[in-house]
Amino acid sequence: MNFKQIETFRAVMLARSMTIAAEQLHTSQPNVSRVIAQLEREAGFRLFERIAGRLVPTVEGEALFRDVERAFVGLDTLRDSARAIRQLGTGALRIGAVPSIAMSVMSPAIREFRKRHPDVAISVHTSDSPMVAKWTATRFCDFGLVSYVVDTAGVEATLLRDVPGVCIVPADHRLARKRRIVASDLDGETFISLTHGDGTRAAIDAAFVPDRRKLTLETPYAATICTMVSMGLGVSVVNPVVIRSLRIAGVKALPFEPAIVFNSYVLRARQHPEPALARAFLDCLRRAIG
């Protein structure tokens, strides 16, 4: 027996007519008759009788049909499952992200994603770039979002966005009136830094040679830096995406020289297919970043 024979037999049983079954299967009535005859020979018994011009299944045909229906219920379940996966993915999404992304553009991206996938469970795990890379390599997360790339086995990185950093100062600061800030303008200023060991911190520090800033305040979170600046605790250089997303009052963002490029990367587990939900979410994230 093959699937074509079983499908034809089921169509005839449901329609109680070979002509109607042929129309439903987009074939001819002689083809349906031939397939049914082949199935009867392989089964070893008749499936239908002609009684008063009507096609009537035999007792053996009815018994076979019950088993066929059980099999087709399973196929219908598989079709429903495939449709759900196509529309919703596997039903859950686990994201690893550095704080600068998790605390800025992540919420707008989730809001847009929810419009099309309201029932997908989303879990956001936040840490520094090296830890997010480890989560991605072990597939603890479906993908990672980091601010710099560390050498991690089993992970590949794709540039998500690169933007020049901006200098942020309190709105009433003496530098807020300038159109552009250069590194020497920050001589003697309390500079709020990211913590030591952060790759982005190293890139910022390299712009200040000689370094005459007052480095007496640091935090691992760019969002915290922005809040501290709004309270007059110092100045800093940050990713413009962060300050734009947070919309913190009392902060002036100004172009900064020399240019410090803030990169964002998507990390994926190497040699593993990307889930459909991950692709859909990343599309939303790109739109949120702008």
Short synopsis of the structure:
This is LysR family transcriptional regulator. With 290 residues, this protein is α/β, with parallel strands linked by helices.
Structure explained in plain terms:
The protein is an alpha/beta fold and 290 residues long. The chain has 3 domains: 3-88, Winged helix-like DNA-binding domain superfamily/Winged helix DNA-binding domain (Arc Repressor Mutant, subunit A, Orthogonal Bundle); 92-162 and 264-289, Periplasmic binding protein-like II (D-Maltodextrin-Binding Protein, domain 2); 166-259, D-Maltodextrin-Binding Protein, domain 2 (3-Layer(aba) Sandwich), CATH 3.40.190. The chain has helices spanning 3-15, 18-24, 29-43, 59-88, 99-102, 106-116, 129-137, 199-205, 222-230, 240-246, 276-289; strands at 48-51, 54-57, 92-97, 121-126, 143-146, 155-164, 166-170, 181-182, 190-193, 214-218, 236-238, 251-257, 261-269. The strands form 4 sheets. A 5-stranded mixed beta sheet has the order 4-3-5-13-6, with helices on both faces. A 4-stranded mixed beta sheet has the order 8-12-7-11. Helix 1 (3-15) crosses helix 3, helix 2 crosses helix 3 and helix 6 (106-116) packs across helix 11. The longest helix has 30 residues, at 59-88. The chain is rod-shaped, with a radius of gyration of 32 Å.
